[in-house]
Amino acid sequence: MPATPPVRRQRILITGASAGLGAEMARAWAQDGRDLALCARRLGELERLRDELVVAYPDIRVSVHALDVDDHAAVDATFEEAASALGGLDRVVANAGVAQSGSLGLDDAEGNRATARTNFLGVLHQAEAALRIFRRAESGHLAVISSMSALRGMAGPMSVYAATKAGVSALAEGLHSDLWDSPITVTAVHPGYVSTSLATAFPQPIFMTSLPRATRAVVAAIEREAPRAYVPAWPWVALALPMRLLPLGVYRRIAG
Ligand SMILES: NC(=O)c1ccc[n+]([C@@H]2O[C@H](COP(=O)([O-])OP(=O)(O)OC[C@H]3O[C@@H](n4cnc5c(N)ncnc54)[C@H](OP(=O)(O)O)[C@@H]3O)[C@@H](O)[C@H]2O)c1
Q: DSSP alpha helices (H): ranges in 119-206?
């Protein structure tokens, strides 16, 4: 149980750091002097980001790692490699995600499987690898990027995506309980709609937040290390309870 105020986590690994929220979180923590291990499949994007960050903040260390989180052996090896590069890891942000799903029984079966693999199995792989390192060090913080869509089942292109995020949130809550008496903390962050390329897959986005505002809220929530956060707080904290309680017929007309 995190009874003491969160410590400063100096060495942070971020997956999905080549774009969107992951790249912006990297910029925010670099500005604050943190050392970073940046992971994604597109190594060129990571190298460009590393070059930008080390020029702007010459005192930080940035390592880059080509990684597909669907590959559990690669996740294990890459997290160990990143820990060696930075002399350990204090925080892992499991952020990599896709939204390729569609209505079941139509033409989107492979997109649905890809979404399930990356968004759920990928997070499982990352949690296993991170917690192995944290248990060894008897310290660490795992943050998983879930979504407000985790709160209810959703229709059409959101159905598998929302189901994976519900799974990720349940996994994070279980890990938080499992590690209750340990020095390791776990956080599930639930962003609402954020203006990134991933969000173009969402058919009915409401209260879309700009990437800079969403990043500030996500980073602040991760720094607090609470088990669960809805971000940005306005409007998503206020909406979380009605989202859970509204009758399905009403909810589906609003949220899709
Ligand atoms: N945008 C929203 O409205 C929203 C709302 C709630 C939650 N989220 C969550 O926030 C996270 C970040 O999303 P975003 O909006 O920033 O999307 P984004 O701009 O599309 O970025 C997604 C990142 O994930 C990486 N990625 C995807 N599949 C991967 C894989 N198999 N292995 C490793 N990296 C992979 C991508 O890098 P490569 O292609 O280089 O691998 C990219 O860096 C996701 O988990 C998403 O579900 C987003």
A: 122-137, 159-178
Tens digits of residue pLDDT in 128-140:
999 999 999 999 9
Q: Which residue matches tokens 């609003």?
A: 254
Q: Could you identify the atom of ligand 1 that is nearest to the CA of residue 69?
A: 32
98 lines ligand 1 (CB under 6 A): yes
Residue 209 Cβ contacting ligand 1 at under 6 Å: no
- Report the C-alpha gap between 72 and 144 in whole angstroms: 17
pTM above 0.90, yes or no: yes
Mutate to test the pocket of ligand 1, among 27, 38, 41 (most ligand atoms within 8 A of CB): 41
- Architecture of the domain whose range is 11-255: 3-Layer(aba) Sandwich (3.40)
Residue with tokens 């929220």: 21
Which run of H or of E encompasses 38? Answer: strand 35-40
Ligand 1 in contact with 42 (CB < 6 A)? yes
Return the residue matching tokens 């903390």.
185
Q: Give the residue extent of every domain in the chain.
A: 11-255
Q: Name the residue type at position 93.
A: V
The residue ranking higher by pLDDT, 207 or 249, is 207
pLDDT of residue 5: 55
* Amino acid type, 46: L
